[in-house]
Design brief:
single chain; about 240 residues; alpha+beta; Alpha-Beta Plaits; Aminopeptidase; 2 domains; 4-stranded mixed β-sheet; 13 strands
């Protein structure tokens, strides 16, 4: 549900207020649409269904964003380099789904220059989403050691990838390939990655105008897809 506000003016949200957001199409290209509120499961899921996500640093209130443009990874445009294809063919790793969510989100927040937005309260909130069946993780293992992975939030046919990590070369790329191909087979039609970094562009990520992205989110979020028994594969 949207409330219409003047362009470029983020709305102040009160903790515990109904999970209603301003129309993100009325924001500027930077995409800050709201400030404050809380990280309740209801508010987070309302945000993702509206094409909005939280992103802020320690000492700030919760900031809610819907930037223009938005980065997505179409499964049919996934690019696997020759070197990565050789690594996938070696099969010297194991993949799991939702086996170590807490460990993955913790690892995604480690060792980032300038600090991390994956603050303790964010970790708690997304673990609640995980227990409720809305947040999921991909794990990449070598010799029973967690070496890479990613986590994200599902809203119907949307999967919003939040962050990834690697402790061994190519481990995060393996997680992206497995997630992209496996989620598509399960019926996910929109794989969101928020921002198009050089690393993600090398995998085929491209940008959509915000209006186009929001239209696709509205369509995808209406679908009903069960990912509880997803089988991961890089094929």
């Amino acid at each position: 549900m949207f409330r219409t506000r003047s362009p470029q003016r983020p709305v102040l949200l009160s903790p515990g207020a109904p999970p209603v957001f301003p129309d993100p199409r009325r924001g500027d290209d930077e995409g800050l649409v709201a400030i404050g509120g809380d990280l309740s499961t209801e508010r987070l899921m309302a945000a993702y269904a509206a094409g909005i996500f939280p992103w802020y640093n320690e000492g700030f209130p919760v900031l809610w964003w819907s930037p223009n443009p938005r980065a997505v990874l179409p499964a049919e445009e996934l690019h696997v380099s020759r070197s990565l294809q050789r690594r996938l063919a070696r099969r010297d790793f194991a993949l799991t789904w939702d086996l170590a969510f807490a460990e993955v989100i913790a690892a995604c927040g480690e060792g980032r220059k300038g600090g991390t937005w994956i603050l303790p309260e964010m970790r708690v909130a997304y673990q609640r989403l995980h227990h409720a069946g809305f947040a999921h993780s991909v794990e990449v293992w070598q010799q029973n050691r967690l070496v890479g992975g990613l986590y994200g939030v599902q809203s119907g046919g949307l999967f919003a990838a939040e962050s990834m990590f690697h402790r061994e070369t190519d481990a995060s790329k393996i997680a992206v390939v497995a997630a992209s191909r496996s989620l598509r087979r399960a019926g996910i039609e929109l794989f969101d990655v928020q921002f198009a970094t050089p690393h993600l562009r090398s995998l085929g990520v491209r940008e959509l105008a915000r209006d186009d992205y929001l239209a696709r989110v509205a369509q995808a979020s209406r679908r009903s897809i069960d990912l509880s028994r997803l089988q991961l594969s890089v094929d």
